[in-house]
Amino acid sequence: MTVDKSLVNGDSEPYWAAAALGRLVFQKCGQCSTVQFPPRHHCATCWGSDLDWIESSGRGTVESCTVVRRAPSYAFADKVPYAVASVIVDEGPRMIASVVGEGALDVRIGDAVSVVFDADTGLPQFRCNQSGPSGG
Ligand SMILES: [Zn+2]
Fold first, then answer.
1. 52 alpha carbon – ligand 1 mean position (Å)
2. How far apart are the C-alpha atoms of 124 and 56, rounded to whole Å?
3. Angle of CA points 106, 107, 111, to nearest 5°
4. CA of 29 to the centre of ligand 1 (A)
5. How far is CA 9 from each of CA 15, 63, 117, rounded to the nearest angstrom?
6. Of 14, 22, 94, 135, which has the fewest CB atoms closer than 10 Å, so is most exposed?
7. How far is the CA of 47 from the centre of ligand 1 (A)?
8. Residues 110, 111, 112, 116: is their CA dihedral positive or negative?
9. Do the Cβ atoms of 78 and 104 come closer than 8 Å?
10. What digits encode the pLDDT tens for the residues 51-99?
């Protein structure tokens, strides 16, 4: 995969390097233990600068979601319909990303999802986890 270099800066380089390997990482503050996303130079909670990188499980829960059926611009014309969700990842951060794969357009609040990385752009996306026989 090729990560768009315009997305990378000094604070986010470790994030993108991990994403290129299919790994999701977050910054964790050594002072207040907040886990944050997106990457920043300082902790957004306490302004501490003692940030370390931790590996995420890549699992999360859908907090909110929508299905886009009318393209917002020509760039998205061939992508509709597509689903977008706000996901609370198990380590704490919130990520807003596309939902892809089987059942994506049926995504619901509370669904369990797992991160995947777009093969072309390296951007994080989420897939719905296989659910039980709820018939939802
Ligand atoms: Zn902090």
1. 11
2. 12
3. 135
4. 5
5. 10, 28, 19
6. 135
7. 6
8. negative
9. no
10. 999 999 999 999 999 999 999 999 989 999 999 999 999 999 999 999 9
| φ, ψ for residue 68, nearest 5 deg | -90, 120
Residue type, 79: K
Name the one residue in this structure whose structure tokens are 């393209």: 71
- Rounded Cα gap, residues 40 and 92, in angstroms: 16
Q: How far is the CA of 9 from the centre of ligand 1 (A)?
A: 21
Which CATH number among 2.60.40.10, 2.40.50.840, 3.40.630.10, 3.40.50.880 corresponds to the domain 59-128?
Answer: 2.40.50.840
Peptide bond into 133 cis (omega under 30): no
pLDDT band at 115 (very low <50, low <70, confident <90, very high): very high
Q: Is 93 within 8 Å of 36 (Cβ atoms)?
A: yes
Query: Measured between alpha carbons, how far is 28 from 74 in angstroms, rounded to an integer?
Result: 38
Domain residue ranges in the chain: 5-55, 59-128
Is the pLDDT at 136 greater than 50? The verdict is no
Query: Could you tell me the distance, in angstroms and rounded to a whole number, from the CA of residue 8 to the centre of ligand 1?
Result: 23
